[in-house]
Amino acid sequence: MRLNRPGDIWYKPAFSAATAMAVADGALLAAGRLDLALYTSAGALCALYGHALPYAARARALAVLVAGMAAGVGVALTAASLTGSAALLVLVAALLAAAQKALCDASRIGPPGNIVLTFVTAGACFAPQRLGQVPPHLGLVLACGAFSWLVCMAPALVRPYGPERAVAARALEATARLLRARGDDVPRARHAATAALHTARRGLAHTRAAGHPLAGLEGLLLRAESATAGEEADGTAAARLHESWARDLRKGRPLPDGPGTTEAGAPVAAGPSPARTRRTWFRSPLVPVAVRVAAGASAAGWASLALGVGHPYWAVVTAASVLQANTALSWQRALQRVLGNLLGLLLFVLLLPAVRTGHAAMVLLTVALLIGAEALITRNYWLATVCVTPMALLLTEFGGGHPARELVGDRWTDTLIGAAVGLLACVLVTNRRAVDRTDAALGRLSEARAAALAVLDAPHSAHEAGRARDRLATALVELREAADVAAGEWWQRALPAERVRLAEHDGHRALAALVRRLAPAAA
Question: Which of 428, 449, 468 is the C-terminal boundary of a domain?
Fold first, then answer.
């Protein structure tokens, strides 16, 4: 329940989505058709994604996301138009939720992940619909999705390399935290720095060409990595230097003039190919989680129907949001969800006088709550849910007025049902493959370390050393992620914790040696 540091770019998704939502809802308000807000909101909420990506990658990712959102809404609306069976619609919503979870995890689209897609498509499953209405409603989704794409791409006109600067700044800040870390904090800080540097290096692959305005960032990252690999005489002073470089990058100043930052052709190779990455993330770890989502979300929706709750899709969404990568994280998310929803319902009751003043006030409150949710989500999930809950109730109100007591009661009941059934699904649908994934990651790390030692034992080009370094960093990051997932899972064979610890220790030593080999080439 403790609060984390605020996200460094929270305002970008917040105000992008708020702009898209305000324009869409404002147009509907002017036309007197706020009952169509579900469809425009589906497209507008796409503006929450992709803000950490460079603009070329962002353009592709958002286009795919908008198409995926439209496809999910299309399936949901078609099902709603073809059947009146609430039980069958719950199943459709649950299967969509499972598919969205698997695809978002596999693609690593980043926050807010699958939950926004599930929130929209689950609601669409229960939207009154005729088959002939589906195409124009999908047209609204695509139109608002296209507008969201434009909103998210617009900053490129002012700061075309802002995302690249931000990802490099994060890597420098993670390096500074490692340099300041002491005692038991060092292993976790080292993993965070390795992951941040690896992410930055892959995100900056397109800047390596000679003459690129940010070509020097590769050398700056190598300088940061070199600081983590060596024994700094004064770690605090080095940390301050890296933090200063990060501030310069974030403020758009000229690239810091540190050692190794002037060489455009830094000897760094790309990470694993996209195809290899997809194969890795479509392997077994996704299957148990997707099955959990399908089973838990459908069971929660059916339980809600059995209890006579008027909005069973809220139970579906709650169960889908509770189910995380492992049982421990799911338990935490359930607690956060219940607390946040309770406080959010209290906030909704307090806002009711303003809500009842008219549709214009509802639109303004929805936009304000959306900004609040994005501002708070990086602090802690439960805190963001305090804003998300009344926002969801307001979106429900756009389709027609409902008694406040009914809305609040249904939401609270579905929250409890979804959280309880989601946790039950974690217990019953076990992820026995989590340790298998750790074993596979140990094997990949062993191979990557052997390749790195071969590079160190014989003369190799800087390019070959860079490829070995990237492969080893990838293996280290994947092992830590796999071990963290397995450590929070239950009913499985024992995690080889000592093997993981030793493999990470040896892997980081080899990585440090490779970095020292590369550092003179970029100096």
Answer: 428
Q: Is residue 267 part of a domain?
A: no
pLDDT tens digits, one per residue of 368-427: 999 999 999 999 999 999 999 999 999 888 866 678 888 899 999 999 999 999 999 988
Distances (CA, A) of 65 to 78, 127, 256: 20, 22, 36
Number of domains in the chain: 3
Given this model, what pLDDT does residue 63 score? 96
The Cα-based distances of 319 to 127, 299, 439, 481 in angstroms read 20, 9, 30, 23
**In this structure, are residues 265 and 212 in contact, taking their beta carbons and an 8 Å threshold?**
no
| 263 is a domain residue | no
Mapping DSSP to helix (H, G, I), strand (E, B) and coil, where does residue 145 land?
helix
Which parts of the chain sit beneath pLDDT 50? 232-233, 259-282, 521-523
Same domain assignment for residues 375 and 406:
yes
In a domain, residue 257? The reply is no
Distance CA 28, CA 34 (A): 5
> Which token pair is 74?
């299309």
Contact residues for 252 (Cβ-Cβ < 8 A; gap 6+): 159, 162, 165
Which structure tokens are listed for 464?
A: 């070959």
| DSSP string for residues in 188-247 | HHHHHHHHHHHHHHHHTGGG-STT-TTTTHHHHHHHHHHHHHS--S-HHHHHHHHHHHHH
Is 393:407 a contact under the CB 8 Å cutoff?
yes
Which structure tokens are listed for 54? 């460079």
pLDDT, residue 234, reads: 57
Examine residue 446 and state whether it is found in any structural domain, yes or no.
yes
Q: Is the peptide bond before 288 cis (omega within 30 degrees of 0)?
A: no
Q: For residue 431, give the nearest of 481, 477, 493 by alpha carbon.
A: 493
Q: Is 318 helix (H, G, I), strand (E, B) or coil?
A: helix
Q: Which of 321, 364, 363, 327 is nearest to 341 (CA)?
A: 321
Assess whether 403 and 292 both reside in one domain: yes
**Residue 105, CA distances (Å) to 192, 334, 508 in order:** 20, 19, 26
CB 465 within 8 A of CB 518: yes
pTM: 0.88
Cα gap 71→43, rounded to integer Å = 12
- Considering the domain architecture, whether residues 194 and 283 belong to the same structural domain is answered as no
- Tell me which residue range forms the domain holding 220: 162-250
Residue 373 near residue 391, CB atoms below 8 Å: yes
